[in-house]
Amino acid sequence: MDTKNLPLNRKKSIAVARLFDRMAEGLELEVLAGFQGMGRPVLISDINRPGLALSGYLDYFASDRIQVLGNTEIHFMEDLPASMLESRLEGLFSFEIPAFLLSRHLEPRPLFLDMCNRRGVPVLRSSNSTDEVITQTILFLADEFSPETSIHGTALDCYGVGCVIVGAPGIGKSETALELVERGHRLVADDMVLLRRSREAYLFAQTNPIIEHHMEIRGVGIVDVKSIYGVGHVRNSKRISLIIELEEWKKDNQYDRTGLKEEHLEILGVKVPYLLIPVRPGRNIAIIIEVAALNHRLKELGVHPAAEFNKRLITLMSDNN
């Protein structure tokens, strides 16, 4: 399977409104000013505390980031004369600032809010501590700007192991996945699987929001797995631990028969264990994938059946000699 040509997508921006919608409950956010600017784009996953900029030093002002205002910044603005504060804020507003984010339910000066209203710069306020506001915002933005791509295949949760089944069109990916769902495993996505690298450098498969949990079964058509089997047989996201490629059995190919050699595929900079499974009449691919998932779980627990069997054979041959 060639992963070198997979398109790498990074979100170029998100709107301030999305940040507010997704974080309003966790940070108890409210909008104090700049309502008309909620569509402003956030272009980067970092945040900035504009203390130096408020003091008049703008040479390296990170204006393209969410500006977090805590006790230090708010009290500094309170101590400035109105004319000087207005001048300093004019310097800040000469840049395109996405939004201001206040912590600790702080109350900024009316002059600051008035200028934000006039320029359409949103001011969001949280009751949480500054450290918590910064941490949650950075984590949220890191997820939003994570690199992602899409792959043609089927993603499932099989015995707790996230598996992506890939292969040529018509090889039987969807039919195999349907049999696994029938056996009690859970479907994440079929046909077009969205893959995203998390901030911890894990690979996650996500449901395509357009296709959701629908599958195309040749000869039957489109089926809705969630409606047929129930919500217990689907999930929207799963960390991927195994890539399984189905291939028509080729007589001259040398397929792995011991499991001693481990192969990996690198997707979005994450190395994932890889298995190539030959398909031919009479092979129950669903059972093979179940065994592969269980075998992978053993390896994650530090038990390598093939390596241990090989070690016993070597010991036995040494004893006989």
Quickly list its features.
Rossmann fold; Udp-n-acetylmuramoylalanyl-d-glutamate--2,6- Diaminopimelate Ligase, Chain: A, domain 1; 321 residues; single chain; 28% strand; five-stranded mixed β-barrel; alpha/beta; five-stranded mixed β-sheet
Task: Report on this structure.
The protein folds into 2 domains: 14-144, 3-Layer(aba) Sandwich (Udp-n-acetylmuramoylalanyl-d-glutamate--2,6- Diaminopimelate Ligase, Chain: A, domain 1), CATH 3.40.1390.20; 148-311, Rossmann fold, CATH 3.40.50. The mean pLDDT is 90. The protein is α/β, with parallel strands linked by helices. It has helices at residues 16-27, 51-54, 71-79, 82-93, 110-119, 130-144, 173-182, 225-229, 285-300, 305-320, and strands at residues 14-15, 30-33, 41-42, 47-48, 66-69, 100-102, 123-125, 148-158, 161-167, 186-197, 203-206, 214-217, 221-224, 237-248, 263-267, 270-279. Strand 15 (263-267) and strand 16 form a beta hairpin.
Over all CA atoms, what is the radius of gyration?
27 Å
* Low-pLDDT ranges: none
CATH superfamily membership of the largest domain: P-loop containing nucleotide triphosphate hydrolases
* Residue share in β-strands: 25-35%
- Quaternary form: single chain
The overall pLDDT, averaged over residues, is 90
Helical proportion?
25-40%
| CA distance, first residue to last residue | 43 Å
Number of helices: 10
| CATH class annotation of the largest domain | Alpha Beta
